[in-house]
Structures are given as structure tokens and as C-alpha cells.
Design goal:
Layout (H helix, E strand, L loop, with lengths): L1 H18 L3 H22 L8 H13 L6 H19 L9 H19 L6
Helix pairs in contact: 1-2, 1-5, 2-3, 2-4, 2-5, 3-4
Length: about 120
């Protein structure tokens, strides 16, 4: 599934950017890794993917977190990374690189959870 592939590539890019000292770029790629994984899960279920980031987050929460299929913690991670990405991309705030390894590890968990929801079609 193309969206899961994009999620994995974005997560890999996040790690490379962090290692290169670009914490803001790493946060951007981390958010988009989760974004693409969430899009994949919604599309797999036949749910129209909203056109806005806030709509995607709300739809993901309503369809996967409220049902208990995805933990509240992972649902909050999508929202948190979007908030931090917006601050880094548009306000000039600098992301603290110290917290990124933990967030990236949680991002790996998020993507794995979406792959599990989708099943064998999630990998190419």
C-alpha cells in the first residue's frame, strides 16, 4: 500500500535529518510519517480521507481511537506531532532534539500498529 510505504520512507527521513542535526526537519518528516500511516488506515477501511490535517486527526480519532483499536496514547501522538510540526514549520520555533528519539520510537510503534490494522496488504 503506497501510503504505508510513504510513511516508512518519511520515518526513515526523520531519523536521517535528526542525525544530521536538523531537528525541525526531523519533526516535519515524523509528522508526515504518522499522517501517511493514518491515511492508509482510513483508506483501507473505505473511509474518505479528509482534506485537512485537523480533519484527518479527528477522523482517525473517531474511527480508531474511540473504538479502542488504537490506544489513546498513539492517537495523541498524531495530534502532538502535528502541533509541534506546525510550530517548527511556521513560527520559527526550534524543536528540542533531545525528545525526538523517543517520539521517533513512538512513531515506529504507530506505523506498526497501522500495518497490523491493515494486514498483509500493508507491505509491498
Amino acid at each position: 500500500m503506497a501510503q504505508i510505504d510513504q510513511a516508512v520512507r518519511s520515518l526513515r527521513s526523520s531519523k536521517v535529518l535528526l542525525a544530521d542535526g536538523d531537528a525541525n526537519g526531523a519533526m516535519n518528516r515524523l509528522y508526515y510519517a504518522l499522517f501517511h500511516a493514518a491515511c492508509a488506515a482510513l483508506a483501507y477501511r473505505g473511509i474518505t480521507v479528509p482534506k485537512t490535517h485537523s480533519g484527518l486527526i479527528a477522523s482517525f480519532g473517531a474511527n480508531f481511537v474511540k473504538s479502542g483499536e488504537v490506544s489513546v496514547e498513539l492517537g495523541k501522538l498524531l495530534n502532538q506531532t502535528e502541533h509541534e510540526r506546525l510550530a517548527a514549520d511556521y513560527t520559527g520555533d526550534v524543536v528540542d532534539p533531545a525528545g525526538l528519539p523517543t517520539l521517533i520510537a513512538k512513531g515506529e510503534t504507530f506505523i506498526a500498529a497501522m500495518q497490523n490494522l491493515i494486514g498483509p496488504t500493508a507491505t509491498t
